[in-house]
Design brief:
InterPro entries: Ald_DH/histidinol_DH, Ald_DH_C, Ald_DH_CS_CYS, Ald_DH_N, Aldehyde_DH_dom, MeMal-semiAld_DH. This is methylmalonate-semialdehyde dehydrogenase (CoA acylating). Its EC number is 1.2.1.27. The protein has 507 residues and is of the alpha/beta class. A hairpin with a 6-residue loop joins strand 3 and strand 4 (41-46). The protein has helices at residues 3-6, 50-67, 72-88, 90-101, 105-122, 164-175, 190-202, 216-224, 237-249, 272-284, 307-315, 335-350, 386-389, 405-413, 428-437, 474-479; strands at 16-18, 21-23, 30-34, 41-46, 133-138, 141-149, 152-156, 179-183, 209-211, 228-234, 253-257, 262-266, 294-300, 354-357, 376-379, 396-402, 417-418, 420-424, 442-445, 461-462, 465-466, 481-489. The protein is globular. It folds into two domains: 16-258 and 473-485, 3-Layer(aba) Sandwich (Aldehyde Dehydrogenase, Chain A, domain 1), CATH 3.40.605; 263-445, Aldehyde Dehydrogenase, Chain A, domain 2, CATH 3.40.309. The strands form six sheets. It has a seven-stranded mixed β-sheet with strand order 14-15-16-13-12-18-19, sandwiched between helices. The protein has a six-stranded mixed β-sheet with strand order 9-8-7-10-11-21, sandwiched between helices.
Length: 507
Amino acid sequence: MNAAAQAGVLAPSVKLLINGEFVESKTTQWRNVVNPATQEVLARVPFATPEEVNLAVSNAKQAFKTWRKTPIGTRARIFLKLQQLIRENMKELAALLTAEQGKTLPDAEGDVFRGLEVVEHAASIGNLQLGELANNVANGVDTYTLLQPLGVCAGITPFNFPAMIPLWMFPMAIATGNTFVLKPSEQDPLVTMRLCELALEAGIPPGVLNVVHGGEDVVNAICDHPDIKAISFVGSTKVGTHVYNRASLNGKRVQCMMGAKNHAIVLPDANKEQTLNALAGAAFGAAGQRCMAVSVAVLVGEAQNWIPELVEKAKTLKVSAGTEPGTDVGPLVSCAALSRVEGLIERGIAEGAKLELDGRRPQVPGYEKGNFVGPTIFSGVQPGMSIYDQEIFGPVLCLVAADSIDEAIAFINANPNGNGTAIFTQSGAAARKFQEDIDVGQVGINVPIPVPVPLFSFSGSRASKLGDLGPYGKQVILFYTQTKTVTARWFDDSTTGQGVNTTISLK
């Protein structure tokens, strides 16, 4: 308990953002934002009332009338300014993120930076939101397309990337001429709100960006609101499926990036040291709380002999608060997350997997109340075990044995998820076979977390994604715009009439 709480003083409240103003919610329902390394209460988050959600949407709808007419260059320059402000405030943003989410300060800066890349991408919107023209498709007839904004759009973001994922969403939606209502994770909204402050400072007009907080009721209100035209979601499969089904039935355009079980194949010809480093970083970084974390390594042939060295590599990682120098693995985001991960480790043991490294209850001097689990490794993992079938979302790596690359590919393709995968090898032929035959949306070759830069689009697939278009890159331009096709013919005074034409052809 912090000093303010001991003194009976309420922690500061997180505000709503409505029509360019940060306003106090009138709700009676609140949730604490808690530092996961210390349990200190940092702030209180309001669960917005239905009236507040409606007010945010109505202001966004009103602002759309003028924002959609704003010149594309004016919109782009706002995001040039925003990327500058983010760079200038990088250390502050990372510190906020670490305090409320737990990841290490260097990883927090990486979180902000990957979002910054999308802001830079939004600043180049003039090259992306282009229509097409076919001249003289018939006598004196031209056909062309316009990519026009939809209206009010909304975003629902998760706790694990509270800077990057909001920056995936609102910059691209707003740059394409839409207005936006954002619902950040109620677990760690502070860095998101600071980014919104910077967005207003960069010049986003009142009503164009709005923020409401809350849980299931607010999510459902966003799914149901008739004035919201599109929703972007990143989070769990359970919630994402609910959002997609409910919002789609209400006629909305929806994209949902959801859960994962990402596999990496390790061939025996791989560079051992680089591969072990990559596996440890991708499995245990951010305490495993990444939807693109490597949570399963499929060891092919003689690579199965590398397990002791992988265990030793994992043992070298420092578990501590994200603010401590040299920390590799910070705390899990909440006490509930800690309990869930520890429970899944216990089930893995009970269901017959071999616990090669037990990371439960590490000693972290000075942070005895933190939600810590150290690197944990299981071997002999099989489908049907809870640690394989469920997304653990903790620093737990499952090891699977395979006799060949074909067996390894078939094993991965049998898993319903398709977010990301990787192969470690020095064989170009094996890598090419893998990229051709694997049924997963994002493929890494000696790259453990193959999240593409914003020039491309996030392309998770199968059970990891609902909706056809990704949250950034070229695909998101299509998601946030409506294609309008115009067929035009102009007559001048010298044009001779051709009489009535009752056919469908253009002549």
